[in-house]
Amino acid sequence: MMSSKHGKQIKDDSRYEALREQGYSKEKSARIANAQANTSYSPSKKGGKASPYEDRTKQELYDKAREIGIEGRSKMSKNELIEALRNH
């Protein structure tokens, strides 16, 4: 189903809009909306094998933030890194 607002890159426009209203980034909203539109994959069924952010060191969180391109990470505290990773 093609979205009328966002073009064909967004598979579930209403889900995307709901996520944006909740404060999710455009990128994260698109990933979730597109994943849930695909019946063979759901973010909740991914596996959950990664350790919780709270159990990781600040350096591990920093490395993950660098990997995905979060700006300003060098000045962030551990809690700020966790917040930025969750909202990216």
In brief:
The chain has helices at residues 13-21, 26-37, 58-68, 78-87. With 88 residues, the protein is mainly alpha-helical.
Would you kindly provide a written description of the structure presented here, covering whatever features stand out?
Helices cover 48% and strands 0% of the residues. The two termini are 26 Å apart. It has helices at residues 13-21, 26-37, 58-68, 78-87. The chain is built from 4 helices and no strands. By secondary structure, the chain is mainly α. Helix 1 (13-21) runs antiparallel to helix 2 and helix 3 (58-68) packs parallel to helix 4 (78-87). The mean pLDDT is 79. The longest helix is centred in the middle third of the chain and has 12 residues, at 26-37.
Structural category is: mainly alpha
Tell me how many strands there are.
0
Spans of at least 5 consecutive residues with low confidence: none
| Overall average pLDDT | 79
Rough outline: elongated
Number of helices: 4
Q: What is the radius of gyration?
A: 15 Å
Question: Which short descriptors sum up this protein?
Answer:
single chain, 88 residues, mainly alpha, 48% helix, elongated
Which helices and strands appear, and what pairs or packs with what?
Blueprint: H1 13-21, H2 26-37, H3 58-68, H4 78-87
Helix pairs in contact: 1-2, 3-4
